[in-house]
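Subgroup meeting minutes
Present: P.N., E.W., G.H.
Scribe: E.W.

1. P.N. recapped why we're keeping a running log of single-chain structure predictions: easier to compare across weeks, and new members can see raw inputs and outputs side by side.
2. G.H. added today's entry (468 aa).
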Amino acid sequence: MLLVMKFGGTSMGSAERIRVAARISREQHQRRPVVVVVSAMSKITDLLLDSLRKAEAGDQSDLDQNLKTLYARHFECCRELLPPARQEAALAGIHGLIGEFSRIAKGCLMLNDRPPRSIDEAVAIGERLSALMMAEYLESEGVPAAAVNGADVIATDAVFGNATPLMDATRERAAKILRPLLDQNILPVMTGFNGSTLDGRPTTLGRGGSDFSASIAAAALDASELWIWTDVDGIMTGDPRLVPDARVLDAVTYNEAAELAYNGAKVLHPRTLAPLVERHIPVWSKNSFAPEKPGTRIVPKIESTRGPHAVTSMADVALVSIEPANSVLSGTKVMARALGALARANVEVLAITSSSYRQNFCFLVRQSELERVTEYLEESLSLEFAHGYLKPVSVDCHVGLIAVVGEGMRGTPGLAGRIFTAISREKINIIAIAQGSSELTIAIVVHRDGLNRAVQAIHRECGLGVAN
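Output recorded in log:
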């Protein structure tokens, strides 16, 4: 009956929030074995990354200011959180961890460089600080607890910045590190986001990877459930900032949750569910600011009504188009090489579509990855561009992605037509459409200025809101 619980950045964002997370953890620990996985305090990972950028640029003044901010926020939280008798040891631990980060950052300052391995080692300090404070507070409340570095538990490949877990090795590590603590009724507080290679080099699992860490731990330990605590009530039919009548879904399938996360719903990390599917471990998405609310249950299969379950959107995307200058060049080969370049760049393609005769194709990526996309494309297709076989790459950053998701869309006639008609009523032009053979998701690209209205129109047309 092991329970794994993950607390996100907002749930760990202050002494008050850590107390709430600890209370939830203590209540569950009294009933059954529990492993807790924590994120860095809100905005801390951004601060760490900004510090490394400042170091690479040689900006010692701003780096020093960031380090002061890092010390101040954690020292203040520690003093507010812990009784005086426990503060000295905890503050020493915080000082030591930030000292580790400072050493790495100042190495980057000397080199004017940010090696990927150093970035992974440095940014994981945020989670290590959270785990330290959470474990210390639990101990002060009479709950036996121990901070655990996720690097000691999660084994990964060597893709720094976006590593993939090696589950067999992780199961061995979890049995060695976490099981003995659980057997002694000690509550492990493990860092999310980070792991290490088989030879011990620090890695991270990508931004938002604390969710992923929790699911990896749950699978490695054969947990009965995974609870992911955030600052929203669960998975909703739409973004409540755009659609006021959006409602919390009681249950969604693994596939639906993964598609929603991949296409912009800020509830789960997109890769979170993969380790859980084989073992059918259910997940709950819950709100630590309102723990009495039931949240959304994520399971292998549900009885689904016909039609979509939810609609989500992404604004910070870019549409990249590639077109041969003439019919001599094989569009299929160009597409294969372009996708190979994106794979080497470790870029996720959000949607892709092509035309048959002109052999042109376009794909959607996150704007944050656009510079890397163009660099790898130009390198991979340099000869074709140089000899004029390909037109210059076209990039449109004034677009947005809409994803309509639901297991119940499969085999529902007329649904796509209704969705497109709802968008057209708002006088919004559809730029691109993509739908896989599973019919689980319809991806639609529109101009950015019509994105919100299109989401509202689809939500309304599909009857996804709260019943009147």
